[in-house]
Records
---
Amino acid sequence: MTNVDWDAEAASFDEEPDHGLRDPEVRRAWAGRLRGWLPAREGDVLDLGCGTGSLSLLASEQGHRVTGVDLSPAMVTLAREKLAGRDAVFLVGDAAAPPVGEQRFDAVLVRHVLWALPDPGRALRHWRGLLRPDGRLVLVEGVWGSAEPVGISAERLTGLLAPITGRVSVERLSDDPLLWGGQVTDERYAVVAMDPSGQERGEAAAAGQ
Ligand SMILES: C[S@@+](CC[C@H](N)C(=O)[O-])C[C@H]1O[C@@H](n2cnc3c(N)ncnc32)[C@H](O)[C@@H]1O
């Protein structure tokens, strides 16, 4: 994927069931998962490598304000069209260092992008710094293919997150064909990693401090 011309891919990107979410069942499956991963309270979501904005739209429909960032101007144009009239902005920029200035977010959402960045650990540290207290990283990743697999395993990703975030939960997604428009056999998962400062405050409150 690192050599993919995303501008050239943009026009047909949504044809894949899990990209465009055009099938109502697939769309419902992703909407349900996303609702469980994002904060219950409406907030600010940063969708990095947002593509055509399919997950941005679901987040917006669930009441969140969305900022999307993608390196491909063609993807950003399609995302702007998809969320026209909504409380959402889309910027051309690098997911590893998104151009959001001092803005901070309740959730940083990244699907199928982290694994292809040159330094995933560095990107995660940067994203952790973009969270508000009590914020969270929502990372949807996987390992695709069998002959020459590409991607990032849940084991490696949770290893990178352990020193920089609080509670981390992993949800396996391979066994839910509704998400993918059919059966899949490779590793697919979502990780939700909580901001550690929020967790410390919660623990302190629970201990009556
Ligand atoms: C597989 S698509 C995923 C799109 C979207 N996250 C989704 O799940 O539908 C990968 C996207 O990441 C974008 N991308 C790749 N490298 C990037 C980078 N360094 N910074 C920002 N976007 C990037 C591509 O332009 C493409 O839109």
---
Amino acid sequence: MTTTDHGGGVWSVAVPIPDNPLGHTLVHVVDTDRGPVLIDAGWDDPASWDALTAGLAALGTRVADVHGVVVTHHHPDHHGLSGRVREASGAWIALHPADTAVVRRTRTAPPTSWLRYLADKLAAAGAPDAHTAPLRQAAATGRGGDLPGLRPALPDRDIVPGELLDLPGRRLRAVWTPGHTPGHVCLHLEEEHPAGLPGGGRLFSGDHLLPGITPHIGLYEDPEDTTVTDPLGDYLDSLERIGRLGVAEVLPAHQHAFAGAAARVRELLAHHESRLAALHALLTTPLTPWELAERMEWNRPWDEIPYGSRTIAVAEAEAHLRHLVKRGRAEPVPGAGPVAYRAA
Ligand SMILES: [Zn+2]
Ligand SMILES: [Zn+2]
């Protein structure tokens, strides 16, 4: 079944993500006095659009009636269809300004400059030429224009952390949870649980808190920003804040709804602590982020990790390194070439 009734005027529609092991995005539909408001919209693909519109029809409404789209973060499996929903309905789109900045950059920068930036970053992280060559080649030949999500919709409204969103008849408060992206937000529905589950309301958690997977925490990747950000530190802080909300149920954007947010938060915090400890132990010899990624534990041996996933893995290794440096547990080794880190 593609739609689920979560009670109390909240439903979800499973919108497929083409060729992706995650399977689908759960687009949540919140009934308001002015019509349905969507939390996320799904991937921009004809089959996904059909699933979304069919799902809304099954709930007895229409995409033309949508009053607003609240987007948890800028990733294409969440923000992809927002623009098309707005065209069909005149709905507003709301996003946190930090992710709006990413959207603006994506819309204006030519894809070739992004490919060059990525190749330079990977080289600085110690990636071998064999890994960066395809990116440089694509940049030189002007390929890469067909990457998904290159023309994401500009939102109409800012999501303001701590404030209620404009949902007539409902209480939905934005909680800023940076980490997975700089402007990721969770949305707290501050209403009693419809089935009487104990706790304070329900949380639309986007990709921040999922029942069975850990979200990717990489770098924020802003070519114009030279400050050294700490996305993993941001993520761990955001997790703790969400754990303290004491919500009765979590409605994530992938997998399935679950209770026990605080326990899941503790699990994720412990996961990252043990990962940080394991990485710290590896840094008895200085390693570049690439070398560290090769030695880290993944869901399969490094040799079997496909090209694109290696790029993501290196960003994840670097995010952990940055956080160790921030905690004073690792330091860069002075020298030429890609920067290596050792335990401090
Ligand atoms: Zn995401
Ligand atoms: Zn996602």
